[in-house]
Each structure stands twice: as C-alpha cells, then as structure tokens.
Amino acid sequence: MSMIAAFYDNKSILITGATGFLGKVLMEKLFRTSPDLKVIYILVRPKAGQTLQQRVFQILNSKLFEKVKEVCPKVHEKIKPIYADLNQKDLAISKEDVKELLSSVNIIFHCAATVRFDDPLRHAVQLNVTATQQLLHIASQMTKLEAFIHISTAYSNCNLKHIDEVIYPCSVEPKKIIQSMEWLDDAIIDEITPKLIAGRPNTYTYTKALGEMVVQEEGSNLNVAIIRPSIVGATWQEPFPGWVDNLNGPSGLIVAAGKGFLRSIKATPMAVADLIPVDTVVNLTLAVGWYTAVHRPKPTLIYHCTSGTTNPCNWGKMGLQVLATFEKAPFERAFRRPNADFTTNYFTASYWNAVSHRAPAIIYDFYLRLTGREPRMTKLMNRLLRTISMLEYFINRSWEWSTYNTEMLMSELSPEDQRVFNFDVSQLNWLEYIENYVLGVKKYILKEDMAGIPEAKQHLKRLRNIHYFFNTALFLIIWCLLIARSQMARNMWFFIVSFCYKFLSYFRASRTLKI
Ligand SMILES: CCCCCCCCCCCCCCCCCCCCCC(=O)SCCNC(=O)CCNC(=O)[C@H](O)C(C)(C)COP(=O)(O)OP(=O)(O)OC[C@H]1O[C@@H](n2cnc3c(N)ncnc32)[C@H](O)[C@@H]1OP(=O)(O)O
Ligand SMILES: NC(=O)C1=CN([C@@H]2O[C@H](COP(=O)(O)OP(=O)(O)OC[C@H]3O[C@@H](n4cnc5c(N)ncnc54)[C@H](OP(=O)(O)O)[C@@H]3O)[C@@H](O)[C@H]2O)C=CC1
C-alpha cells in the first residue's frame, strides 16, 4: 500500500493553476491514486467565454482524465471550482468561499503563475508575488492546514551558474517591490525593470525569485515547501506517454520546426537541455506534500526537480531526435521540409534567419498577394523569431542544480511509493521520451490523426521537389545574370561546359570500347 496515496485519502486539497499544464496533471494523479480524497477545490477564473463549470467539464472530459473516470467515477462531485482572479485584491474570492476554505483545506498546491517572459513587471509582480502573499495570508488562517506547497522554477536564480536548494535574496525586498507597484507609473517601472531584474533575462524569473522570498518570509508559521522544476515537458509515463497541451517551452518550437517554419536556431548543441517530464514534477510534488505535512521539516525545504545532474541530455541530441521523429511521423501540411540547424555564431544565425525564415515568408506572402489573398506569413514569422529570441538565453547556457533534498526525499519513500510516485529521472530514456513528446505534440496539440501520416509524407516529397526546382531555377537565374555582366563568369561557364562535354565524350567512348 502506498503511504503517500493513503495520506491524501479523505483530505481537502486546494489547487491554484489547476487549469494549467502542470495543474491538470497534478489533479489527474491525485484522483487516480487517491480516489477517496474528500474534495479538490480549484481557484478558477472564467476564460474565453467559458464559465467555471464549463472549464472544469472540458478538463474532465479530456483524454488526460480517461483513466480517472474508471478509478473515480464520482470525480465530477469531488472537484469544486471556486471563482478567483489572482490579478485582483484578495484574489477576488467571495466571503462564503473563503469561509469554506478556511474551515476545510488540509493541503495547498500553489501552481498558478504568469509564465510569460514578456510580461510587464507590474503584472508579473501581481501574479507571481502579490497573489502568493495573499494566498499565504488566507492559508495562515486555515485551521486544518497541514502543508503549503509552492511551485517555483529552477530558473528563479538563473543569474547564477550553480544553484543550491536555498533561497537567494533579491536586492530589493518583495514587500518594497509590491508597495512601489502601487504608486509608480508604468513608464518608470519600465525604466527600472532592467536594473531590478539584474542578470536575469525576464520579469518571469525575477518575480518567481521574489515569490520564493515571500513564501519564506510570510509562510514561516506554516509547513511550507518550494519545488523548483526546470523546463517542464510532456508526460513520460503517466497517465500515458507524450501528453502535452500547451505551446510553452520546447512544445511551441517542436510545432514550429515540424511545420517547417523554424529551420535554424541560435543554440549551443552541447548545452544541457534540462527538460523534466510533467508527471515527474507531479510525483515529486505529491511526495513533498506528504513529507512536509507528516515530518514538518524546519527550515523550509526547497526541492530541485531537474534532470541535468542525474541524466543529462543536450539540445543537439534533442534536435536530432526531434528531426528523426518528423521523418517517421511528419506533421501535416508543412510549410517547408523540417530541418534543424543549430548555430552559436551571431552572424551565421542572422544569415540563416534571413535565408531560411524571412525570405521564404516574403516569397510566400508575395504568392498570397498574387492570388488575391491576405499576406500573413511575414507577420507569423516575425512573431516566431521574437519568441525564439526570448528562449535563446536558456538554450545557450547550462546550469548545475544541487539535488540533495530531492535525493533525501527519495530515500524516505517506501519501495511502493518510489514506484507509484517515481521522480527518479536516471531511468529516463531520452530518445524514447523525445519521440513520444513529438508524437504527443502531433496528437494532442495539433490534433492530427496518425492515419494522415502517408499523406503528410507525400506532401513533404512534393515540398522537396519544389525545393530542388526552386534552387535550380534560382541558381540558373543568378548565373545567367552573372554571365551577362562578367567576362570571368563567362569564361568559367565555358570552361565548365567544355569540361562536362569532354567528360561525357570520354564516358561514351569508354562504354563503346567495352561493348
Ligand atoms: C532549428 C529548429 C530546431 C528544432 C528542434 C526543436 C526542439 C529542440 C529545441 C527546443 C528548444 C526549447 C527551448 C525551450 C526553452 C524554455 C526555457 C524555459 C525556462 C523557464 C521555464 C519556466 O520556468 S516557465 C515556463 C516556460 N514559459 C514559457 O515557455 C513561456 C514562454 N512564452 C512566452 O512568454 C510567450 O509565448 C512569448 C514568447 C512572449 C510570445 O508571446 P506572443 O504573444 O507572441 O505569443 P503567444 O505565446 O501569446 O501566442 C500567441 C498565439 O500564437 C500561438 N502560438 C504560439 N506559439 C506557436 C507556435 N509555435 N506554433 C503555432 N502557434 C503558436 C498561440 O497558440 C496563440 O494563439 P491565440 O492568439 O489564438 O491564443
Ligand atoms: N511549464 C514550465 O516549463 C514550468 C513551469 N513552472 C511553474 O509551474 C507552475 C505551473 O506552470 P504551467 O502549468 O506550465 O503554466 P500554465 O500557464 O499552463 O498555467 C498557469 C495557471 O495559472 C493560472 N492563472 C494565471 N493567471 C491567473 C489569474 N489571474 N487568476 C487565476 N488563475 C490564473 C492559469 O489559469 P487560466 O487557465 O485561467 O489561464 C493556469 O491555470 C507555474 O508556477 C510555473 O512558474 C516552473 C518551471 C517550468
């Protein structure tokens, strides 16, 4: 019997960010392994014209939850959506709902965040710092609370090369940052942002670091723990391999590469690709919830959930395996044939951007205009290149994260818990994982049917022929222009033609002799 699974039986659990990538997998695993849990409260906001109930219904009816429905048929009754908006004061939770949460919640998993790299500091502080502070304030009044688990990121201190499982203080205290956001205007905030984030590439990593400080300071009277995952990717094993449903991290780039939009990237092939499967993060999170509630470790423990120390993979290897999977199962209606050129040189990268990305987009838009359609490729390409420029920081560096606490926790688990809540990535086979990841992107993000693979392969063949035809035509045009203008080019051309002629004559003569 799993001790961790039994621990969550009969518990009331509060999850923020349950509609996100990590939150959904966390809920799924909880329901599947502890179907006798009492209730899961989730803080949700209405979105894209959907009410809270509709959002929950959509999640529960997705493929991710198929197994849950078998194990826990009453799952609909055990999930309670609570209206909340982390952008608003006191999270906009109604008084009645707060009252219910205060009297019943046993465990909190705080996953909600803005993960955008381009968020203005004010918004990122509101979501990742102020909302965390307000949630801690509510948590501190909960009478039955046993543990508060905060999800941060391994990159909260990406300004350092070696990162230990400790909190590194930021130069300005979070409280002061929160206060200053109340009276500073946007223009001034934009001006001071680069100075505040000092050494970090974006407001996301900075505000996640501030969020950790808030958890440490304001959660001192609670049982808190912080989990720092690296780049969270598709599921490795559970509930099935390759599940992914958003475009963050590598997923968006896999789409862009598979569809032939992205063919080269400024990335260091030998840099560690510190991916971590989402189900591994969830297993660690649930184990940490149990350990924090039962053992109440002091001081606050931080757990790194990374792969680079135990089982490193690099971007070069990942790129090759992604391409190999495209060969087996290409994405449908690709714009160009997939390719993955990794370059570390700024000038080579700019050259390939112009030749492989911008030029084809301009030509395609020209074709769209000629055929009376609205041009869109240049706009899409600009957006993609902007996205790439924001990810470049992470694919040209390697970090080392110590994992003492994570290893300690593993040693505390029973053999059964080590199996059910496995977070040992040394067992992960990267080639298999990446292949399943790419197939998952095809199936669950692009919603492409595997039956369409032969047609997709045919399409790629057509693209290859167009590519050869286009290159030959381009070469001939340039060459003819050169011949018209340069004596040297003309001489070279005559030399090559006469050389080919002589070679063919020799070849023909030797064949005649043989006969
Ligand atoms: C040569 C090729 C090689 C190929 C081989 C390929 C594999 C090998 C290489 C792999 C290298 C992996 C590197 C990962 C590094 C991650 C490091 C993370 C470290 C920290 C980890 C964390 O701790 S934290 C979580 C990470 N946090 C994010 O990862 C958010 C980032 N991201 C944004 O911060 C915003 O994304 C940003 C960018 C502002 C744009 O913002 P933006 O406004 O321009 O665009 P949006 O994202 O809003 O998307 C607007 C609309 O475009 C749609 N769309 C978006 N991408 C699309 C796409 N690729 N194809 C089709 N459609 C797409 C989308 O569905 C929207 O559609 P709609 O408008 O209809 O809703
Ligand atoms: N994905 C990754 O690679 C990594 C993620 N992390 C961390 O893991 C956690 C979860 O990330 P992930 O699941 O990938 O992110 P997602 O963007 O998929 O999910 C974010 C969640 O936060 C919710 N949220 C955002 N804004 C608000 C708001 N104003 N009010 C209420 N809810 C809100 C979203 O709700 P809604 O659906 O309504 O938008 C969603 O449920 C985050 O803390 C992130 O920092 C850490 C390392 C890597």
From TrEMBL:
Domain Thioester reductase (TE): 15-284
Main localisation: membrane
InterPro entries: FAR, FAR_C, FAR_NAD-bd, NAD(P)-bd_dom_sf
Primary enzyme class: oxidoreductase
Residue ranges of domain Fatty acyl-CoA reductase C-terminal in the record: 357-448
Annotated Gene Ontology cellular component terms: peroxisomal membrane
UniProt entry keywords in alphabetical sequence: Lipid biosynthesis, Lipid metabolism, Membrane, NADP, Oxidoreductase, Peroxisome, Transmembrane, Transmembrane helix
Protein purpose: Catalyzes the reduction of fatty acyl-CoA to fatty alcohols.
Protein name listed in UniProt: Fatty acyl-CoA reductase
Biological source species: Ictidomys tridecemlineatus
Lineage, top ranks: Eukaryota, Metazoa, Chordata, Craniata, Vertebrata
Gene that encodes the chain: FAR2
